[in-house]
Amino acid sequence: MKKRSRFVLIVGTLGFIFLYAPIVSLIIFSFNESKLVTVWGGFSTKWYGELFRDPQILGAAWISLKIAVVSASLAVVFGTIAAYALTRFGRFRTRTLLSGMITAPLVMPEVITGLSLLLLFVAMQGLIGWPAGRGVTTIIIAHATFGAAYVAVVIQSRLVDMDMSIEEAAADLGAKPLRVFFDITLPIITPALVSGWLLAFTLSLDDLVIASFVSGPGSSTLPMVIFSKVKLGVSPDINALATIIILIVSVGIIAAALIMQRSSLKQK
Fold first, then answer.
1. pLDDT of residue 139
2. Segments making up each domain of the chain, as ranges
3. What burial letters (b/e) apply to 63-97, b meaning 16+ CB within 10 Å?
């Protein structure tokens, strides 16, 4: 047993090194004095200063943040509605179709999702004249679409584990369904809503493929700008930018995990 546990420990350690060593090296070289990203020239934070003086990076970051906030909020609204319908409305005629539509964005290749959304926007523009071209609006719609699927899964798992007797007791006391939802259900699933929002926000902030299909002139997101810069060669300010993104995403993931853990402890 000791040999087996030692083997598992070694394999696990090597796996973590394989996964996180490139990220750690990227963070370290973001503080490199040299312009060559693979040659250490001393400790310096000048590339962070250069990064915050780059108008293209700052503009793309602001666009990405706006898109992520709005799309995550829309994803929470639509994801909550879908999750509530699947868990509280019993078996209805289109339940299987709705469940499949929610699951599809989770397993669909992003290239297919981006191409299908692009064709949809082109067709809508030809039929009703909206959206007029591709830009921030189409990116928000696209990100809210696939973000809602992830949010629905998170909230659905919380609703399934929730004690329905509380809702039934409120209904027996005369509360209408809408009041039961806002006074009973919504406060209980709030941690799941926050976790779903953080997840959708992170997915939107990191997306490159789908945004590349549905974006237009003047609406380049931060991942798109990074990708265009990397094609010309990796510069130290890109390492600094990647470090900041890693920090933001890590904070979001840790916050979501802590919220879910606290929620589960309260239930116990």
1. 95
2. 56-267
3. bbbebbbbbbebbbebbbebbbbbbeeeeeeeeee
